[in-house]
Design a protein that fits this description.
single chain; mainly alpha; Arc Repressor Mutant, subunit A; three-stranded antiparallel β-sheet; two-stranded antiparallel ribbon; 9 helices
């Protein structure tokens, strides 16, 4: 499997923040499975077991279609068809070491603007999620995804696993639950643990007000953490190196080590 990392500006990305939490989880998992050119087949039937191998009972193909559509509307990915197959292309992608992708190239209007540093004119993304979903209108969605009872299309991970969790209790969340939720939000266990103990020491109050919307508070804490880390690096107090793996050839479904580029 390829080794990938997210740049710190991901936490403050307006495009990423426009997604539902479930769509954001899908997007971050896509980063792991696409090839060195940022591509993968887009069939929900293929993506579902690859993206959520241990959560097949929680995720339906209809969910994937909706979340993929959200990501395209936010211009984080682009969908394209070649023959009877559909493919996804990550945007703002930094190519890896592979010489060639086994996924076919996207159209020129996508290819010229999907990589870091490219300055081609890119066709605008769909203006609505519904318009995006039409691309999958002829897909044979599996029977277990025909009926979506979740009004917000969120992952059915637990009774409270939704886009914004809140509680009037003190503390509003256990450390174990916060770590689990942080993982869904792509926030490391170190940051979540630091946040939890910091807030617990302050009696779960911020600016003299009780913290009830704890997921929102955690997200802000993580963003602040990222900014402080960046300042530390700029001042030479923190060094970080990324070792890129080796590989000779990429495939459509297997990538080698690559860096994921910036998101705006």
């Amino acid at each position: 499997m390829p080794n990938r990392y997210l740049r710190q500006d991901y936490l403050e990305s307006e495009a990423v923040s426009s997604l539902s939490m479930s769509a954001e989880v899908l997007w971050t998992r896509l980063i792991v499975i696409v090839d060195d050119f940022g591509r993968h087949e887009a069939s929900p039937a293929l993506l579902r077991p690859k993206l959520f191998p241990l959560r097949l009972n929680d995720v339906r193909e209809a969910n994937l279609v909706r979340w993929i559509a959200e990501c395209e509307k936010a211009n984080l990915i682009r969908l394209y068809s070649v023959g009877q197959k559909r493919f996804v292309q990550m945007m703002k992608w930094e190519k890896g070491r592979a010489k060639k992708s086994k996924c076919p190239d996207p159209p020129k209007e996508i290819l010229e603007c999907c990589y870091l540093g490219s300055d081609g004119d890119c066709m605008p993304p769909p203006t609505s999620v519904d318009a995006c979903e039409q691309m999958f209108a002829d897909e044979n969605i599996s029977p277990d995804s025909d009926t979506d009872t979740d009004s917000d299309n969120s992952l059915s991970l637990s009774a409270g696993a939704r886009d914004d969790e809140s509680s009037s209790e003190i503390p509003p969340v256990t450390l174990e639950r916060a770590i689990s939720r942080g993982g869904e939000m792509a926030i490391s266990e170190e940051i979540v643990t630091s946040w939890w103990h910091d807030r617990d020491a302050l009696g779960w109050r911020r600016k003299q007000q009780p913290i009830t919307r704890w997921t929102s508070d955690l997200r802000k804490f993580a963003a602040s953490w990222g900014r402080n880390e960046q300042k530390s690096k700029s001042n030479g107090t923190h060094q970080h190196s990324t070792t890129r793996g080796s590989g000779t050839h990429g495939t459509c479904n297997e990538g080698k080590t690559s860096q994921y580029g910036g998101i705006k």
